[in-house]
Design goal:
The complex is a heterodimer of chains A (166) and B (481). Chain A is α+β, with helices and mostly antiparallel strands and 166 residues long. Chain A has 2 helices and 12 strands; from the N terminus they run E-E-E-E-E-H-E-E-H-E-E-E-E-E. In chain A, a hairpin with a 5-residue loop joins strand 1 and strand 2. In chain A, helix 1 runs parallel beside helix 2. Chain B is of the alpha+beta class and 481 residues long. Chain B has one domain: tRNA-splicing ligase RtcB. In chain B, helix 5 crosses helix 11 and helix 8 runs antiparallel to helix 10. Classes of the chains: A alpha+beta (166), B alpha+beta (481).
Chain lengths: 166, 481
């Protein structure tokens, strides 16, 4: 799936994955912040979107320093939690997934690192999620919005767009 | 939907009713501003809102309007339940009852400069500011949270943080009717329980400033804003509790819109008819969150008074630190307005727009009733802010509403790039402004050049007659999260 560490990214002393996640770019929005995520498969899309959200919160500075750190679901260490959400379609599922992870990092001190999905379909997902205590966030995300929301498939894989209220 | 605008006069533009729009759009802007507004999707959003069921009057855009989710920020819309009118959480915003409080004082700016460092250090120590920052030592019990959600600012005053006199100078007396703590989820309560009395992050702040220009001497004197006196702005809202209430509502509203057969031009306009159980649930939760925000600003207001008292070694009463007013700019309220020559009870949504009731209205505090309701328009952290009064014009044209701020012109990323390599703290100090911040990354996102010039926004509002200028304030010290 990917090497745990790559040049330009890595880990900080507390073991947080650092560096901008692979396949994620920010969307320039005047008041809020958005990300566009590209991935070869749906589970990687959901993983990268989660890592992208964390990177936005932490104010990760440099998109060019993309890392596939954390791509591997079999990451050692960190706490494990079960996440299960229901939805009506892939787009609202992505929002529900990110909202759950946002709650976990903001209130339960659990910062997403990787996931192993037992179920991932438009009606819902179930995953074992690994995480660590959060790094100090720089940007407060108030919520995950439906604005500009898209999850699309093409010949090369999947693309998602999601905007966060800041 | 392709949107055209037609000029009505120097400050008003019409979006003609076309296609699925039920009413016209009305946007307040000058020429240059309109160019800016056209370049993002705000006009389409004004037009989209005009498509919602039961909208009455016009779908309104203020001069600081910019792209938001669903409703633009800087938008006003009113809905009549008798016409199938709806409530939409996107028309309120994530930060329910984000708003502004202004404290006055009899301290002169020349007397504060030598103590400014100490004052700002005191604020930084006493008021938690920063992403998710709450108090370690002030965590509300479940019972107290319920009381805050029901009683708003009054609960805080009852705990000894403020006076009854404060309550008379808060919009709605610092509490909205119809709040139901049971409509607020456990998650929302968890997010908010250690955050009462905290600033938050992003564009929230506490700003010590001074009255540097007076446009109406008599009104300024009545508000206690004499030239040269020191003031304190508090800009914050319902914190994590409110954000979660908004989040919790969006799914329900999306499903409700579908089940009530409401065609949404944009998913973020998710809404439910005002007479539906979904709407009732949201309004009850929104009111509870709004009460949390009133309580939040009351608590911070008290901390500010304590810090001033410590810094000047005099009781805050002797320093004349009265509350001028406290007003919301993200909220939905039941109000009575004249629409098509008939008085109607409507649900007014103000998202990034401030209530601006006229002289004589019984919701204006008795002390100001002949003047009109005070309105606060904060600018960016480097330039200036304004105090206005509500007008008859606003009451007639905009459901008693006006603008709320400057509006951004640069994305956060662009602002951070522009700030790279600069010593922002020194830059501000060279301009006589002291900054205290838990993150200078956030300060970088909030630099003055990231914002439009609030003077031009206020100018439009004043000339269009939907708010009248009283004083201008300049910053001396800013606390940011």
């Amino acid at each position: 799936m990917g090497r745990p560490d790559s040049p330009g990214g890595g880990r900080d002393p507390l073991g947080h994955v650092t560096g901008w996640p692979q396949g994620v770019t920010t969307l320039d929005h005047t008041a809020d912040v958005g990300i566009r995520v590209r991935a070869p498969a749906l589970d990687a899309l959901f993983h990268r979107a989660a890592r992208g959200m964390i990177a936005v919160m932490r104010g990760e500075p440099d998109e060019a320093r993309q890392t596939d750190a954390g791509e591997t679901a079999g990451e050692p260490a960190g706490e494990v939690r079960r996440v299960a959400v229901e939805a009506g379609d892939l787009e609202t599922l992505l929002v529900a997934w990110l909202r759950e992870l946002l709650f976990l990092v903001q209130v339960r001190d659990f910062e997403y690192r990787s996931a192993r999905f037992q179920r991932l379909e438009p009606e819902g997902l179930e995953a074992e999620v690994r995480g660590t205590p959060p790094a100090a966030p720089e940007t407060e995300l108030k919520g995950v919005t439906y604005h500009g929301l898209a999850v699309e498939r093409d010949d090369d894989g999947w693309t998602a767009t999601v905007i966060f209220d800041v | 939907m392709k949107v055209t605008v037609e000029r009505i006069d120097d400050y008003r533009w019409r979006i003609p009713k076309t296609g699925p729009m039920r009413v016209e759009g009305l946007v307040f802007a000058g020429d240059a501003m309109m160019e800016d507004i056209r370049s993002d999707q705000a006009l389409e959003q004004v037009a989209n809102v005009a498509c919602l069921p039961g909208i009455v009057g016009r779908s309104i855009g203020m001069p600081d309007i910019h792209w938001g989710y669903g409703f633009a920020i800087g938008g006003v819309a009113a809905f009549d339940p008798d016409e199938g009118g709806v409530v939409s959480p996107g028309g309120v915003g994530y930060d329910i009852n984000c708003g502004v409080r202004l404290l006055r004082s009899s301290v002169h700016v020349d007397d504060v400069r030598s103590r400014l460092g100490r004052l700002m250090d005191g604020l930084y120590d006493r008021v938690p500011a920063g992403v998710g920052k709450g108090y370690e030592s002030f965590v509300l019990s479940a019972k107290d949270i319920r009381r805050v959600l029901n009683e708003g600012a009054a609960w805080v005053v009852g705990q000894g943080y403020g006076t009854d006199g404060d309550l008379a100078r808060i919009e709605a007396g610092g509490v909205l009717d119809g709040a139901d703590p049971d409509a607020v989820s456990e998650r929302a309560v968890e997010r908010g329980r250690d955050q009462l009395g905290t600033v938050g992050s992003g564009n929230h702040f506490i700003e010590v400033g001074w009255v540097d220009e007076v446009y109406d001497d008599a009104a300024a004197a009545r508000l206690g804003l004499e030239e040269g006196t020191v003031t304190t702005f508090i800009h914050s809202g319902s914190r994590g509790l409110g954000y979660q209430v908004c989040d919790d509502s969006l799914d329900t509203m999306l499903k409700a819109a579908s089940s009530y057969g409401i065609d949404l031009p944009d998913r973020q306009l998710a809404c439910a008819p005002l007479d539906s159980p979904e709407a009732a649930e949201y309004m009850a939760a929104m009111a509870a969150a709004a009460n949390f925000a009133f309580a939040n600003r009351q608590m911070m207001g008290h901390r500010v008074r304590e810090v001033f008292a410590e810094t000047f070694q005099r009781p805050w009463g002797e320093l004349g630190m009265g509350l001028v007013y406290d007003v919301a700019h993200n909220i939905a309220k039941w109000e009575t307005h004249e629409v098509e020559d008939r008085e109607r009870r409507v649900c007014v949504h103000r998202k990034g727009a401030t209530r601006a009731f006229p002289p004589g209205h019984d919701e204006v505090p008795a002390a100001y009733r002949d003047l009109g309701q005070p309105v606060f328009i904060p600018g960016d952290m480097g330039r200036y802010s304004y105090v206005l009064l509500g007008t008859e014009g606003a009451y007639r044209e905009t459901f008693g509403s006006t603008c709320h701020g400057a509006g951004r012109r640069m994305s956060r990323r662009q602002a951070k790039k522009s700030a790279r390599g600069r010593n922002l703290r020194t830059e501000f100090e060279d301009r006589g402004i002291q900054i205290r911040a838990s993150s200078f990354g956030t300060v970088a996102e909030e630099i003055p050049e990231a914002y439009k010039d609030v003077a031009s926004v206020v100018d439009v509002v004043d000339r269009a007659g939907i708010g009248r200028k009283v004083v201008r304030l300049r910053p001396l010290g800013v606390l940011k999260g």
